[in-house]
Each structure stands twice: as C-alpha cells, then as structure tokens.
Amino acid sequence: MDPADLNDGVEQAPPPVLTIPQSRMQRITATFVNPIRKALGYKDEEPVEPQRQIDPAHGSYTAFAKLLRSPPINDRDKRHVFFAAMKSMTALPEDSPMRAKFNKTFIDIVNNQKRPAPRYLRSPAYHASVTPQPYARSADPSSVSHSLPDAASVFDGLLKAHTFSEHPNAISGMVPAFLAIVSLCLFRTKEDDPEFNDTSPYLDLSPLYGSKPEDEDLVRQKDGRGMLWPDCFFEDRLMFLTPAAQALLIVWNRNHNSIANRLLLEGGFPLPTEDSFSQQKLKEQDDKIFRTARLINCAMFKKVIVEDVLKGLLGLPSVGSTLNLDLLETTRSDDKPPKVNAPEHRSCIEFSLIYHWSFLSSVGDIEWMKGVMEQTFGSKDIADLTLDDYDNAVRNYKTEVDSNRRRRNLPGLLRGDDGLFDDNELAKPGLQAEDSSPGTGFGLGYTTTFGLLVDLVGAIRADPCNSEYTREVLTEWGYNECFGKSDIGSFGALLPKVLSRTLPQNYPYDNTYTLFPFTAQGPGQNALKVLNEQYNRARPCGTKILKTKGAISQVLNNPENYASCYSHNLKALLGGYGFLLGFDTKKLHDADELMILHALLPDKGILSKYAEYFARTADELILAKEGSVDREGSVDVVKDVIEATCSRWICNAMASHSFNWYPPFLIPPYSTMYEQKIPQAQAKYSRHFESYMREYCPPATRHNEAQTLGFPSYVFEFNEPDQAWTARARALKKSRRLMDDIAKTVEKTLATSEETLSERIARVYKEASGLPVGKLSPTPFLSRLAMKHRDTLRHFAGWDAIRNTADLKMLELFRDECWKPLPETQTLSHRDQLRRSLRLRELEEKFRSTRIAANILGLCIMSVMMTEVCARAVEFYLIHGGRDEKEEIIRISKAEPTSDNNRKIMGFIREAQRLALPPGLFRVARGLPDGGETIAQGDGYPEVVVYNGDRVFANFAAQLVATNDMRINPHRPNPYIHGLGFHKCPAISLVDGVLPELFKAIFRMENLRVGEGGRLTGGGTGGKQRSLVRRGTPLRSLIVKFDGVYKPPIRWKEPQSMREKSEWWQHIVHRIKLTLKVVVILFIILGVSILFMKVTPAVPQVHMPSLPRLRMPSIHMPNWFERTPQDAVCRQPLTAFDPWHAETIRPGPDGKPRPIEYTYKSRRPHRLSVVDIDKRDMQLELFVDGQSRGVTTEFTLDKAVDCGEDLRRCLQERFSAGVIEIPPGKHTVKIAWAGKEFVEGTRDIDWGADRVRRFEMLREDCS
C-alpha cells in the first residue's frame, strides 16, 4: 500500500459490508467484565451493535492516530478503525516507514503509560519480580454496585453453554491449549492466601521451569549441559488441564533442550566428563547454559504470543498476513542492554477472570473433561457439587499424583522404558485437532480482546528479562533465533518452527498442519484454500519404527506396499526423473544401477586412480592451511578437507563442464620439498596454490564446490525448520540450472567428441576385460553412461513399457500428444507422419538427455553423503573414541599403505558409523488392507500395526548397537551398515577404496585435536530425546589444530593388493597383444584412412565419446603452424586437461582489448588450440613468454556470418583459428586480439555497440 493512500477513507461514507450476528460469547463477555471497562476509562456504551467485517478502507494511519489523541480511548468505534488499521499495517511492505508508525501507535494505545496503575490488595515485596506478590485491582470499588445478583444465577443465565456450535473462522483445538499455558504463566493463586499470586506477572514459562530456584531443581539435570530432564515440566495444576496443554509443555521442554544442545556444541563449551570437570566447574557451565537457554526459550514463547496469538486477537487471517509487531521497538538494542520504557506490570485480579478458555473447548476437550469429572466426583450431579467437594478432590489428586516430574505420565499417555513419550502419541491429544471453536479471529468480544491486548503487551514490555536481550548474552545465534526474521511459509508465525523442531516426523516443515496450527483443517474447512502447491495439505500420519532385521527386510523388499518417501524430492530436483533411492520399480532401478556402475567403475584399476586422487587432493588442501615448524596450524576438516576433496572428485570425475571446474589440481613437489625440509619451500607452495585457485577458480566457480551440498539436506530433510522452506526453494532453483548445464554438457560431449575406430575397439575391449582405461576424466564417464543408456533400454519392451513404468508416468515429456496411439479411423498425411516421427525422435533424445543428467546429478548428491560418514568418523575418534583406537589410527595413517591397513581403517570408520550414526530409511505404507498390516518383529520387540499413509522407519541401530557391546572393533562384520533390500548401497567398493585415504590424510597431522570453535552441526534436539526416526543433521564444521609441518608421504603408493592386481593385468595385456594381431589388417586400413584425412582439406572429424579434438586442415594454418623437426615436440596421444570452453576479450580502461593470459608449469609440452566463434570478425595473436608466435589464420571479415559455439560450423565457414605447442617448463601464454576492426587510419578498435569478442580454446597435455 502506498503511504499516500493511508489517509484516504476517513471522511467517506463506509461501503456496505456483510453483517454477522454477534456471538453469544461476545454478549456474555461484554456483560461479565464491564467493571474492567470502567477501570480502563471507557465510557458506558449502548448495547453492542451487530458485528461487521473489517473494512480496510478505514484503516488509515490518520484515523488510527486519533484513537490515541482523543481520550478516552473508544475501542468500540462504529467504523472499526483499530482493527482496520492493523489490517492495513499487515498489507505494508516490511521496510515501509509507515509500518513503524503503525507499530508505535499500537504500542502507545495498548500500553498507555497514562493509564492509572492498578492498586495492590496488600503491600507488595521490595521488587516486582519476587514471588509471591499480592494481586492488584484495576476497578474502583466505589463504582461497583453493592446489589449484585446471585453468582449461580449469573453463571446459569450467561455463562453456561447448552449446545456446541462450530466457529465459522475454523479455530483449532491448539488455541485453547496454548492459551491455557499463557494463563498458567501469569496466575498461580497462593493456596493459603488467595490474595497473593505465587508466580511472576510475566511470561516466563513458569509452568515449565517453576517460579523459584527450588522449583527448577525438580526439572533440571545439572550435568553440565544446561538441559532439563527430558519430557517433564514443573506444573502440578494438572487435574483439569487438557492433554493438549500438557503435551505443549513437553514441546517447550524439548525446545529448551534443543537450544541448550546447540549452545553446548557451538558455544565453545567442553563436553562434560567426570575426568575433566570439577563439581564447581560443572555447576558453573550448567548454570550458564541453562540460563541462556531459558532466556532464548522464553523469548521464543513471547514471540509466539506476539506473532501467533495477537494475530488471532486482532481478527487477522492466518494466511496472507504477517503481523510482525515489534513490541520492544523502543526498549531493545542490538549491542547494548535495552532501556525499559514501559509502565510497571502487575497481576490484576480482574484480568485473571478473562484468562479462562472453556468457551473455546473442542468436542474432544469437552468429552475428556466429562470423563475427568466423572472419575473425580463419581455419579454426583455437577449441580450438586460444593466448594468443599472441589477442595477435597484437589487434595486427593495431589496425594495420588507422583511428585517426581520425571516419572509422571500424561492423561492417556505412558512413558516408554527410556522415560520418554512416543512422538506419535504426543502429537495426538489435540495438537492436530480438527475441531473448531466460536468469533472473528478468536471471537472473544471487544472487552476480552482489549483486556488481553493490554495485559499481554504490558507483560511483554515490562519484563525485567528485556535488559538481557543482547547478542552478548543470548549469543549471535540465540539473538537471531529470538528476533531475526526467517521465511518458513507460515506468514510470520513462530509456533510452527517449535513444533517442527521437537516433533519433526509429526510436523513436517511444508505441511499445513505444521505451518497453521491455530487453524482447523480437514473436510469442509476452506480457511487455507488460497495456498499454492508448495504446501502439503495431507494430515501427518504416525511413524512406526522397526528394529529387527526380519521386520526391516519385510518392508524394504516390498516396494509395492512400502514406497520410497524420497521419490518426490528426488524428482523435484532431477527434472521429474528421479534417482535410484526414489525408484520403487525394480526393473527401472536395476537398469539405472547397471548404467551408473558401468560408467563409474568400468574396471578394477579405476579404484586405484580414485584412491590416489583422494590422497593427493586431501594432502594438498591440508598443506594450504598448515602452520610452520614452531607454531600450530588450524583447519576446518569438514569444509576445507573432506567436503572440498569429495566435491573436487565429483567435478573432475563426473561433471567438470557442468560445475565449471576445468583444470586438474597441481601435485605439490613432495620429494624436493620435504627432503630439504625448508619451511620457505612450503610457504612458496602455499602461495602458488592460492595463486592457482585465484587464476583458475573465480569466486563463482569456487562456490560450486559446495553446490551439491544443499541437495542431500533437502532430499533427506536434514534442514532445520527455520531453514527448510528457503533451502527447498534454493535447492530447486539451483538444480534446474545444473540439470540444464549437465544436459548441455552431455550433448556437447557426445556430439563433438572424437574417438577413432581403433580407440573405440581398444576402449571397449579394455572395459570388457577389466583393464585400466586411462586417466581420471569426466569424458569417458559421460560416454560410458550414454552407451549404457542405449543398452539398458533393451530391458523394456518398447517405449510404451517405459512410459507406463510407475516411476516415470508423471515425467513431463511423456505427456506429449505424440506418444498417444492414433485411432484406427484416423490417417495422417505424409508430411504429418514425418512431423510426428521427428517429434518422437526429439522426445527420445530429450529422454536420453534427462535420464543421463538426472543420474549424474543424483550420483553427485549421493556421493556427497560420503562426506558425512567421514566427518562423523573423524569427530567420533577425536572426541568420543578411546585413546588406544586413536593411536592405532595414527600409526596406520603414517605407515605404508597396504590392503590390510586400509581394510582396518575402513573398519574403524564403520564402527564410528555404527555407534554414532547408524543408518535408517523411511518408507510410506500404501495399498494395505483397511485394517492395516501387522508386522511381527521378534527378538522380544512388540508387533507393529501399519496403516495406509503411515511412515515406517527402518532403524538399524538396534541391530548394529547392542547395549552390551559398545566396544570398538575394526574387524567386526557389519552386514546391515549398507542397508537392506534392492536399495542397498551399490557402490560399496568405491567407498571402501577412497574413504581410507581421506581419513588417513587427516590423522597424519601431528598432535591432532579439536580446536577453538569446536564443531558445528545443523542443530538437533539434544539430550536423550527420542530421535530414532531422525538422523542427526549434517556436521557442517569441525575445526582442528595440529603442530608443526604437515608431512604427507613422499609419493602415493598403491596398496599391495592393487599392485598385485596390476602385475596380473600385465600378463593379461601380453595375451591381449597376441589376440590383437588378428585385426592388424583393420588397423592398416584405418591408418591409410587417417593419413588421407590429414592430407585432404575437410571439416573437423568429430566422433564420440572422448573430449572434442578439432583436426584443422594444414592449408588453413599460418606458416608458424607448419612444423619443423625441432618444433615437433608434441607426441600423441593428447590428453585434454582444459576442455573446449569460451573465453571473452573486453576493452580495458584505455579502450584497448585486454588479452587473456595464463601461466602453466609442466614437465611435458602442451598444445593450445583457439577458434574464433560467434560472428566472423576476429583474428588472434599468440605470445609465449612475451615473444609472438604468430597470428591465427586469415579470414574474410563478415559479421553476417554467425556460427555461435558450433566449432565444426565455425571451421566450415573459415573462421580464424590456430594451434601452437608450448615446450616443457614454466611459460606464460598470452592470447591477444589482432584485428580486423580498426578505426580507419588508427590502431583504435571499432567494435560498435557490441563490446565483447569471444573465442573457444582447448589445452592438451602431450605424451
């Protein structure tokens, strides 16, 4: 809304609006609390007019401000200015200056400092925060009539409900449950003196923590972690407290422990152990974490009131409006304690009368209450109950209820053997209720609404804890948690984040039951009909946990009834196609698995290359971060070593073009550097490495290292609730771009790569025989993937079978009309038949591109999961593992690599995974009988009944972690660590081959230990709370320190088993040579053909599937390209280390074109090829070490000829091109623009409006 429009509508006649009769509760409330109105200075009003809808046209700021300037404040203005103004405020942009004005005026109206302070019934204590304090009274006793009707008559005539009626605004049963906790926070009448309030008048979550230190002792663990005993709370007024309210207190208990756990892990606190902590130190750390966690938890509780409750009080809808009130605007500062500028807040006895929510009760709550009354008072009629009956019942209840909060059960809920409540049962008692209650918003009437606004706002603004709301006290994370803004799809509501954090499986981050907990949902409810497809509207079902091998195997091997729950997210990321873990069709799963394994592991020798790459890359990354001989080094092993190594392997082995990762990594001069032991040599290498990164990896490219890291968190829902919504949007946007890039790379590689017949025969024979196929490169991987795509299509009986595969039915390209068979009566013309045929061919090619791209990106996503396994293993042995195990790992890491050593290291990693991060998978039940299916677990575990829609969690922890065997044994067989069923991890050999090298590189650092800053996770519930159904969030950071200079091995050596295999392969090679003599004639013919191609001018020969290599006719080359014997330094075969890619020349500040330069050091010569692209308008001059090597071929300037990036067409059209060879050693190569567009008579460029020129370049290593 434009600020200029906010002053419109004040003097205009109101437009006609729909009228709704005032509810009975509003009439009752207005009659019951008239004394409060008089005490607040309101005039006597005529009977309330029928309620009308809020008209935003009357919500101008001018009219709103008049409410403040014209005392007494009239809350019953006929034009609803107050409510209309708040609605106008929610329509303003977040950064609108008018929003701040509305915010301040709201505070001034509701928290008016000129209003007379309530008078205490007794003399108060010296400080308002000390309990107990006497109640205060707002109403003047002299204004109250002494002739009052009988209380029973008032209740029966005005307050007693005779029938139940649903509210048209669809308020859920969560509303009265939460408001009940608010009431318990503010009022606790002292038993022996009813004029005193035994709790503070502030929203301090006293029902959870208690009001005094001795109360806190009943619920605190005091073990150095600042946590509460799991699933317990202090409140003992439970006789008539609904199960939903009690369940919400458990939720806030879990939220506290989640906060405390994060403070412990990220606040630099050491983990409390008996050996390292004195009792005094333990107490100090526990108190500090507990106080901070309580501050943050209470601040979040108050924010829920501000954002969620006040929105309902003000009659604003849950969907589409963001209130975002800042009630501490004038009292809070980011970096210094706030200056409290609010009137003193007191517990008013009149306000206590309006904090009762029985009129909001749902049908379930009413039936529960009837049962409690019957159980408590027997068959005695409620009308006959006396006050003595009630007092006796309360006393009996207190004697019967267990005073130990850790053992106390909830109504209808029993604790498990671990002392915790089951998440599914905890979410049932009203938290996901569909019943609605009566008003607009909460429908409480004018007087109750304004009374609650005054009391709640006053309690928040006058809270003494406001002085502690600084970043220094709350920590940076805690401050942002309390006062930061995050988009979680709930239009500002905060309670969804708490529910999703503490009950993640029952409250998914994108579910409407999570995001709008105060709104009733289900059949017939339309409050949320305006939401888009981003929201999941299905009511969350329970999660059933399976713990035995037999039960898990029964589920994982039955995809027809237990579908993968990862399918939706994988398809959303991967262009609608999906990936292995999301497929429930075994034929499709097996076909794609075969395609991937053939491309990734074509021979046994490739594992040796992968392992060498991991070892060298990890060493280089650590070298770049190390210290000197006399000081310690520091490195984040998760971000700077583990993630970086895996990401670079992904880029170099699978998708270098797509991830913009062109050059290989430099191998540091190990032998000379460490034999000399000169620190300056290491510093020189570090500088060289950083220079290399700056030259070859621009900032946008370096960020691509972690480009896939957000995808696994989205697929497996590891993101924190306040991050999941935006993380999903970020992941989907990023995946669309990556899928397009990968598809283009695949098409370009397969269309322009060159592979002669002899090369293809040799490659296919090597792959079929298991021989090593060459250097680590993504191009053979892409080629093998494409080749296997064609082969695996034969597994299906034609395209109709592929399209009808259950996992592919919704693929968008299969919805094209061309796939549908023609009716028998319809015939097509020849042209239409040709058009249809071409369209089908286009769709088939698109399917190939989509499938290959989806498998590449899907494989990248799953490969990133290796980082989590390795990171958790490093964390485990640095923090939790024994000293002997750590010393053995260090010994093996520094020893010569052997197959036995690597196998033992992998055993240590598996043990860490078994004990710290046991695997688990989810499935969703479908197609079961109406009565569900009973799964017998055995081994003493109870049967599990599963119904359609239930999520089933296959928890391997019970099989992997026996309570009587927590020892670390690297030789222990772990048959279930890779999962069960046809979704079992397919690349076990890859993980076993490369992960030990990465792990050993880390433990080669001297005196390795956790450094300052410790470790950083994505959060977590903390404590001993039930987390079997949620794997820990990824370890994002682990800072370690080490001493001296890092010393990797002099050279990387193959493990003995790999060397033995290589020797065996040499014998096989000898036998293959004999076999190849049979085809010698074929090679002679092939050689003659190649010679003929070199002599005859022709377009570049492009074959598949290696990197593009352009054969340029010699007649078009400049004189400097005609080789002489001394120039012919480059021998075949060539290996592309910097594939074809575009470079851009732009004018510099002086108006002259800036050349492209690079410096390269190599023991071998390398070849540089350049071709002009786009328009035919550029010639290049090439320099080596400042000496000109000539210009590219002559051309005819014609800007009408445009070949784009099609190199074959560019050469056909005689665009300028050239090739030079650079000798071994370190050389600087410059590529400069050489014409022809000059201003006539000058050397100034004349490029017109187009200020860039592009060319493609290729760099290849010679043999």
From TrEMBL:
Alphabetized Pfam families for the sequence: An_peroxidase (PF03098)
Family annotation (SUPFAM superfamilies): Heme-dependent peroxidases
Any one biological process term the GO annotation gives: response to oxidative stress
Keywords: Dioxygenase, Iron, Metal-binding, Oxidoreductase, Peroxidase
Signal peptide: none
GO MF terms held by the record: dioxygenase activity; heme binding; metal ion binding; peroxidase activity
PANTHER family: PROSTAGLANDIN G/H SYNTHASE, PSI-PRODUCING OXYGENASE A
Name used for this protein in its record: Heme peroxidase
Organism field: Gloeophyllum trabeum (strain ATCC 11539 / FP-39264 / Madison 617) (Brown rot fungus)
